[in-house]
Amino acid sequence: MFRRRGNNFGNDDETAMPSYPMYQSNKTNNGMMSKPSLFAYRYTTKGVVIFRAIVAVVILLCILWGCLIIKIARDISNDGGGNRLPRGLIARPKIERHRFGNKLRQRIKRLELKLEGKSPMLDVNKMESPVLVFTFKRADYFERAMWKLYENHPAQKYVQQKANLQERHDIGRIIGAPIIISQDGDDPEVKAVIEAYREAFEINLGIPLYRIEHYRPPEDKQEEIQVDSWDVDPKPYQDLARHYGWALEQTFSGAAYDLDTQHDRHISKPPLPQRVVILEEDIEIATDFFSLMNATADILDSDDTLLAVSGYNDNGKTQHVADSKRLVRSDFFPGLGWMMPRRVWDGVESHPNTALKSNWAPNGYWDDWIREPNIRLGRQVLRPEVSRTFHFGNIHGVSQNDIEHNLNQILLDRVGVQWEKEDLSYLKPEWFAESYWRRVSNAKLVSTEADAKFYIAHSDVRLVYNSLSHFETLAFNFDIMADEKAGIVRTGYEGIVEVRYGKGEFILFLTPPYVSEGSPPSTFGKKAWTNVDKTTLLQSFGLSIPSEEDWQVNW
User: N or C: lower Cβ tally within 10 Å for the chain?
Assistant: First the structure.
């Protein structure tokens, strides 16, 4: 018999109603069934699909994160071949271009260090000689410079001592600490390099790294500086001069330590700098660069006849240098990796109005400005015979390749000297002047370039130049720098320029006419704190005075 549907409300027979889920419903308290909802079913089904999709995406992201974590952990823990290195020389830091990847790398590094133990922070109270690195937007050059700075930093040896379970001795003064990076503008690729090396220095070596940013106004809002009309574009020099002056003041005043508080670990504030080591984004340092700065720091602090210590020799081509342990005094400021004491920046009471910070490079050419007679004031520079810095930047640089041919041929020392163990007492101004005059005046006097090239194989040789134009000709023939500033020839000491022609044992001296076999002039090596103009200086050297047409800076 057939039964009518809809009249079997009291019947529990399951055959009374088709068992389609969309029509199933609960019974009410009075036995009546509630009205089924097709919309509710469809909504529930759609929610399940969305939930499953979300779960799948989360699982996929977890897998990707896991792979990324494993990769970064392996990068941190290995040197590329699977062999564990001491922490100070883990590997060349990986430059993470994306902020997320950089933050993730830092978290993994911190986790690793919790398991292994951090390299302890070195005593910041001994960090009164920071290294200040200038950079703009050449991230590839900057990274190369930072790698050599990291690889050759003096803190590496203390990490090595710990890695080799050696006794850690009192480290004393740390030249080159902390690290201050002054970035002109906010180029993101340069920022990525800075963050990678912040991790390397702070976590691996225990050396703080600070980043300060110099505001770079838009091109149409930059103030023009009045300069002489030269063939080269002055604007890059002006921009660099502004950046230099600002960053040096931030460093010497200690303000740089308050401008950057984003560190990978807790760091106490260092003391005010007593001296600053200055590098740029395209300068590579030798293995003993910081040893040289450390060994000469006390000399620089105590000798007020010195303006700076430089690691660079403008005439340091391979064929012109030989003695890696020799330092000399020079009247020409070379820059390119140098150290300046606080007394030069702030000035001294005994010589008022001589502070460099008081009227920094108003014409925009900061290095030539320092070489001006009224700024240098007869003070000298210490420099090595074999350079401890190498200028490798030749693309988009400030100098615009005007001396690229010479810069790329400078020999960077590969010997490595423990300068702290060397006797540098001969660099005292009076001792150096006496011994230098003796060697120059006793050199064999020749009259031609051919004779000079012949006799240099057997003894020191002296060849006289009678004017700046004559010196330029000799310099060209001997393949050395020919320019001068305010009458001071490049690398010159009292007008004398030296090279080891042919990289031999003996030295060729190019000298003004005043040099003779007799006693030196009373002012020889004693011109500190005197403002001697170009004409007076050339006359004292016995050189002819250039005509109005020739009166120009050869730069």
Answer: N
d(CA 23, CA 13): 16
Residue carrying structure tokens 């080891």: 500
Can you read off the two tokens belonging to residue 423?
């006797």
Q: What is the pLDDT of residue 332?
A: 98
**Cα–Cα distance measured from residue 464 to residue 452, given in angstroms and rounded to the nearest whole number:** 11
Are the C-beta atoms of 491 and 330 separated by less than 8 Å?
yes
Is the C-alpha dihedral spanning 149, 150, 156, 160 positive or negative?
negative
Say if CB 424 and CB 295 are below 8 A apart. Answer: yes
Per-residue HEC secondary structure of 302-360 comes to HCCCEEEEECCCCCCEHHHCCCCCCEEEECCCCCCCEEEEHHHHHCECCECCCCHHHHC
Q: Give the ranges where 389-428 is alpha helix by DSSP (H).
A: 404-407
- For 196, the enclosing helix (H) or strand (E) is helix 188-199
DSSP structure string for 30-70: TSPBPPP-HHHHHHHHHHHHHHHHHHHHHHHHHHHHHHHHH
- Residue positions annotated with a catalytic role: 367
Handedness of CA 334, 336, 341, 344 (dihedral sign): positive
DSSP state of 431: H
Nearest alpha carbon to residue 411 among 492, 482, 503: 503
Greatest Cα-to-Cα distance within the chain, rounded to the nearest angstrom: 146
Tally DSSP H helices, then E strands, for the chain.
Answer: 16, 16
Cβ of 374: how many Cβ atoms within 10 Å?
A: 11
Structure tokens at 541: 């050297």
Question: ω before 178 within 30° of 0 (cis)?
Answer: yes
C-alpha count within 13 angstroms, C-beta hemisphere, residue 372:
14
Mean pLDDT by 10 residues, the chain (555 residues): 43 44 46 51 69 85 76 52 43 67 60 58 92 95 96 88 55 91 95 93 92 82 52 78 97 93 80 98 97 98 97 96 97 97 95 93 92 97 98 64 68 95 98 98 97 96 97 96 96 97 92 94 96 96 78 47
Exposure of 284 by Cβ count < 10 A (0-12 exposed, 13-18 middle, 19+ buried)?
buried
DSSP state of 406: H
Angle at which helix 38-77 crosses helix 99-116, to 10 degrees, equals: 60
Between helices 99-116 and 188-199, what is the axis angle to 10°? 0
Structure tokens at 523: 């002012």
CA dihedral 259, 261, 263, 268 (to 10 degrees): 100
